[in-house]
Fold each of these.
Amino acid sequence: MRLTLGTANFLKNYSLIQKDNLNPLYKKKLILKAKILGIKFIDTSPSYGNAEKIIGKTGVKIFKIITKIPKLPKSKINNISDWILKNLKNSLKNLNQKKIYALLIHDKSDFMNNKKNYLEAFNIIKRKDLVEKIGVSLYEAKDLNKIVKYWKPDIVQIPYNIIDRRIQNKKFINVIKKNSIELHVRSIFLKGMLVNQKVYPEAFNEWEKKINYWFKWCKNKKIKPSTAAFLFVKENKLIKNIVVGFDKIDQMIEIKKFENSKIKKFPHIKIHDRLFLNPHKWKLKMNNIIIIQARLNSKRLPFKVLLKIGNKRIIDLIYDRIKSVKTINDIIFAIPNNDLNKNLFKYLKNKGFKVFLGSHKNVLDRYFKAAKKYNADTIIRITADCPFADPKLIQEMHKFFMNHEFDYVSNTIYRTYPDGLDVEIFSFKALYKCWKNAKSSYNREHVTSHIITSKNFNKHNYEFKENLSKARLTLDCPEDYLVIKEIFNKFKKNYNLNWYKASKYYLKNFDFMKNKHLVKS
């Protein structure tokens, strides 16, 4: 096993621990310390900011350097061989090297789509003796099977850690052994998540138990998580190089100190979800907003959002309930820009709320333009006739959306939750697609009806363990208002009243009213 100094963390905010950019002087110190500690390999890329130049300026030619071919620009599609060669020569210049140990394809799809050109470039590079080995950087173990049908790489670099054990797949191991491929692994700390218990994102709470168990195990063993993570990887005898990005020199010293140590048994904490295992798919820095749709000119119950429950208006009640959702960045009210809603605009602005004025009838346009103005990546749609809107449910559904690749997640496609617990979550990309393609007046008035009926969106219906769809907790007509007031009065005007209790109370006492509510405004 050969320890390799990784430089991907030379980029700003690369890991979850490192919030600030490493300054150039400290980067040089890391490189020089690696030399002193006997580390002989450096992994880098033109994509890692100024990493190659810093390595070159440090003047340490003792290292065996591994760099990458950047992603192929569309403009170079007709001149691939020359482009690859030009990039390599530029890297050699930056690194102050005449020859490097290895050149890796950074994006395997570029190779698969342009195999002939890449193989031609590799032959030229080998003839010119510019690199010792040529390989590929992968994210999925299964991709190696596709590549070896056309080319045998000298090196494969791939993620591997205590949680991500996909390379233990027998087919992958057989391909590595059969083709005598040199195996390098990276992401052994999973961007710091396996090193610091406090850094994992809110959206990953689905795996909280497994992550916490890892840190508890390390504590019981009296070993630092970074050292334990390294020693786990080192146990795999198939691995030749372990790429580690060090944020601190002390961490490098610690790993080298225990380099030859062993741990008899590691915890079994595998996670299989690719959205968790691939940091490129993490949704960490997204702008997630709630847009509350509101108006005063409801036909069946005008001014309903300003009606009171106790001393609180409905619209304030909804806001106060949902403002505790931890996974959102902002709450926006989207209201019609007309004379009928001037008083609502004034009321919301006086409260200090953010308000977007848009089309009255084209509510889809109002939503789209509100989301665009506030640079939303993900939109959670709530309507102002849902006084029991529940922050825990919204957060639970939002985390589900964040951890899966759906365009649209809702609990309303077919109901198991009560009417009035409506939550719809969609990406800005899906909203834009809907806004662009929805043509009918019905689909323009009803924000997500086109998404629900179209086959061009990946949708998921979020279900409750019980079917409580007969419960009605929405505010649509005068009868609803009487019911909602009575429920809150029954529970002593508890404005944070749990929706489940309210639903059960409704079904026990007000189910006779269900046939009076056949049409929503």
Amino acid sequence: MIYHCEDHTCNYWDEGEKLPERCPQCGRKLLRANEADMTGDDWTALGNTLWDAEASDKKRMVDCFRKAAYLGSAWGVCNLGICMEQGNGVEADPVQAFWLYQQAVEMGSLNAVCCLGVCYQYGIGTAPDAKQAAELYCKAAEYGSPRGQMLLARAFHDGIGVEADAAEAVYWVRAAAYQRYGEGMHRLGVCYEYGDGVEQNWERAVHWFREAAESGVGVAMTDLGYCYEKGCGVEQSWEQAFSWYRRGAECGDPVSMCNLGYCYEKGCGVEQNWQEAIKWYEQGAQCGDLQSMHNLACCYEGGEGVEQNEDRAFYWYRRSAEGGNGSAMCNLGRCYKRGYGVEQNWQEAVKWYEQGAQCGNLQSMHNLACCYEHGEGVEQDMKKAICWYERAAEQNHPAAMNSLGECYAMGRGVPRDLETAMEWYRRAAELGEAMADYNMGWHLEQAGKLSEAYTHYRKAADGNDDSAWWALGRFYENGVVVAQDGKEARRCYETGEKLGSVKCKMRLARCKLLGIGGRRAKKAGLDLCRQALELAKESSEKEDYGYEAEMNLLRRTIAENES
């Protein structure tokens, strides 16, 4: 049974065994149709209802369009061409699609004019001809087709068949937007956001994002949410950002799904909920969003919201990295470096760091530089190490700034230049790099500027740099700048040891042996000193400032107390 809405402006058509009570589009009464009285456009409307149907109904959809074409519907001919182009319900035949579009154009279909232009632009069923494509887009646009206006706008923006002209592109985008065309309203917002063909104006961008979002454009909901998140063109509001990300996600926009997951993960605009975060990251990942894949991998690696799973973390890092996500490339390289979720492989680690670096990921640049500096997975090459440190540092990557400072301080790959080193340390420290504060403190201490050194050590310790706790402990142990305080020294060493500092472990063992900051325990203290010394011999901290001197001090302390 075929039926349709009694309101012809609604144009809803469908078929089924029973006649529903109301139209699902407008809620009005449905009427049974007489097939013999159906026009070509009626058959096209029925075919459109079946467009998103299950595969078993696709043949029926094509049959509807064929009947429509037979009855002279330009709409039906055009839609039949789309099926032929896409292989939807029928075997793909681009040449036949091109011919059908030509026929539909002759019959007056504006949409077919656009489709024919796309065929000329991309060489679908015919030889590519950008100029002919632009002429067809212009024809459709001038007749008022919003799709044609958007295609013509893109042609002017990218110089497809016409000379590139950003202002002319915006003119046609605006024409589509003023017709309430969703894509046009959103694109006009993007133009105002980036100052593309118009003067940048965040308030106008927000206006058009809102217009498009309220008309149901999912990507506009995402962009409007971003404006609220960052406070661009509107007062910053995580609650509003969350609301628009949710609407965008529910409309199927993958970026909104990712951003909604982030809101749940961080508790931004909503109560923190790891399960909801995972749910939306998974949905975004399944929709192909690379950032969702990356975030989901992070959750599996950290066991946050899901049970920790190395294999799943590696799987999603790889999926995201292979799709081009720079952060995922970096983390995939780290997985290969550590043997996390995969067999350890330095060559693969370097490969992914290099790909991430080429994509502009700053952490990848830093990690790749470290590989070249230490000859891990590649032949040692300080020239390349410096190159990658500089590229990341010049883009304000704090760890790269610190590492570059280290190279200048030690004369590794560049002439030794402590002044330049201290400048890089300073810049890194200003961005919160605790290790850079520690390094500044060390060089100031060596220069006899003890008060300044203490200030930087304290700041580095507040940032949980383990070596800074060792430095502070020494100052308290020996009464340098601060009052001598064995208990405070011991507390500093204990804190640094918990953070993994071998130097603090050596000092703490010495404190127990000598009774610094607590009761002396000679036998137990000697055992701890010997254990700490053995551990120190194999530690990766050997190149740290003061490390060798610390080992020598512990050796002397052991020798002096063994008798």
Amino acid sequence: MNEKSGNNASKLKTSTTAAKAARDKFRTGKKDNEMTLEERKALAKMRAQGRTWAYKEIAAREMARKAATATRAVSSGASEGSDDKNKDQNVGAESLRAGLSAASAMAEAVKHDLYSNKRYENKHKRDVREENAAKKSGSNPQSKARQHSQMKKEIKEKAFQKSSKEAANQVGNVGRKFVDQAEDLVGKLGEFLKEHAEAIGVIAVVLALIILISGIFSSCGCVFNGASHVGITTSYTAVDDEILAVEANYRELEDELKDTIDNIEDDYPGFDEYQYTLDNIGHNPYQLAAVLTVLYEQYTESMVQAKIEEIFDKQYTLTVRPVTEIREREVTDYRWVEDDSYEDGGYYEEYTYTEQYEWKILKVSLVNHTLDTVIRSLGLTADQLARYEVLLETYGNKKYLFDDDIYSIVDPGRYGDYEIPPEALTDLRFANMIREAERYLGYPYVWGGSKPSTSFDCSGFVCWVINHCGNGWNVGRTTANGLLNRCTRIPASEARPGDLIFFKGTYDVKGASHVGIYVGDGMMLHCGSPIQYTSVNTNYWRKHFYTYARING
């Protein structure tokens, strides 16, 4: 009996020893708080994926661990006797400390996220300073396209800085709001536990844990939203299927326009002549997707149908105009001449005279005002226009959607680093063509473009060179197929510098779809994206080769 009493006596605790036991269990007990091998491996993996996410994950784990410890401490304290007032107060105090520790861990995670965003923003600022220094050291007067590209990059940097600052402010506000709410919540929780430390203590800590975990995930969502704001700014936000469906609708409108032009002579019969002045039909699909993203964000096919029809009507102007000209021509006829010396009293003689007649012409004109020009006339705000420029620079982070479009993807190519053999330049006509053509090296491809102020498309570039090189030629403004009709086809074995080289199937059009100036040695100068020298022996150009032709005259 005495031995049993002695054993029980050794288990009894005074108020002081009970409080010490509770503190030891809660703060410095036997529980191993060191990370396990698995936890260390997981941390290393998270660091490889990115330090920002690792900090958030650590904060969440630390909060959960401390809250769980608080729960066990409260449960242990309650089981050893609810009549001990000092013990109840210690349980409430330690729960308060645990809650504050969890809130501190969250604050630390937010601070690390802000620090990472600041470092990333500073890196971009350094890149911009380096690019500005490089620009001041010298520029290439030959390449307006590269200057235009640089302007786009600067706009993109400004958009990034603005978005980063907004994201940082958003994260900071969320972090401060969360910490303030967490401290207030834990303070009230501590007071409540001092008065109800028994069974209610366990429930209160569990509820606090749920609230804190919900808060950290909510704030992490805000952090991710802020960090991803820059990505959204530079990306198409509609789903791929909708982007492709809208693009298909726009191309269908263009196909209908081509059919209308092809059927002009059937629809307008009875004319002596049909004169065509036609810009190329086509557009840059990245420009269409960019402006629709700016205007509608996550757009759908049905949502933007009216808008693309409006844009299409502004891009293309088809004019059919009948003209009647009074012309003169020499006519040979016969007339009777009276002469008594002839048995019949006269004879017929041939004579020539000039007569006037009507010549009926149908003049067909198609102007492609270019999609980019139309977009810039839609009344976009400065911010919308800056976003549009950024989306063009990044291809909406979906370059794969239209990467088979050689006219829309910028390919630096060889620009002007190809040297034409000197013997080829002894041909004065060819030398005149090259002198004019090389003035525009680096100019971007623009659908329907036909002059330096708008830049060029492939046929617009070749027509401009032919008309302005000083050789006395004038082919007007026509398509690649129209140019072919003004030339004489020749076999490849007879091609020489100054001849034209034609391709088909580079986009959906009948006959020749692309044209360049052949410069000899298997090279051409053409308006790709941008205007540049290119080998005609690549797989792509061999696949689409059509014919060589010589300019008439």
